[in-house]
Amino acid sequence: MSADGQIVPVADVPTDTTFLFRVRPTDADIQESPDRESGEIREAIMLRDDAGVVGWLNYCQHFRHIKLDKGSGAEMRNGEIICTNHGAYFESDTGFCNFGPCEGAYLSEVDLAVEDGVVQLVDDDYEFVGCGGIETDPTDLGSKSNREF
Ligand code: FES
């Protein structure tokens, strides 16, 4: 959809996994990850439930360069988003980690709203860039495996 904040028709947002999109921080102070430049494009995810849609940055709170949705939808179980690297569980409606190495942490929220059946980015800290993930992401090297050799 257009770059004016309209992301996707709400009917196209899954309920059993996540929809991936890209945002750019508009606030120079936002440093969600120490290895990212201020203003650098980030990935975000959204999912839908009976209450509407919720959005989060697509990064675990244990190792914050690790993506929850690696391009084909995040793993989910019983309404919780699972980080497949070390098994952290995040409540999809609050972003709260209730199990795993970052227990007690929260995912970083991205504010969304539904207007006329379309999901809009309404977060003053971010602007919508596009749907899908970052195709070439130099900080994504650890997203597939977190093993150190
Ligand atoms: S990187 Fe997500 S639980 Fe460790």
UniProtKB/TrEMBL annotation:
This is (2Fe-2S)-binding protein. Coiled coil: none annotated. GO terms for molecular function: 2 iron, 2 sulfur cluster binding; metal ion binding. Residues 20-121 form the Rieske domain. It comes from Halonotius aquaticus. Gene3D superfamilies: Rieske [2Fe-2S] iron-sulphur domain. The keyword Iron applies. The keyword Membrane does not apply. It comes from the Archaea.
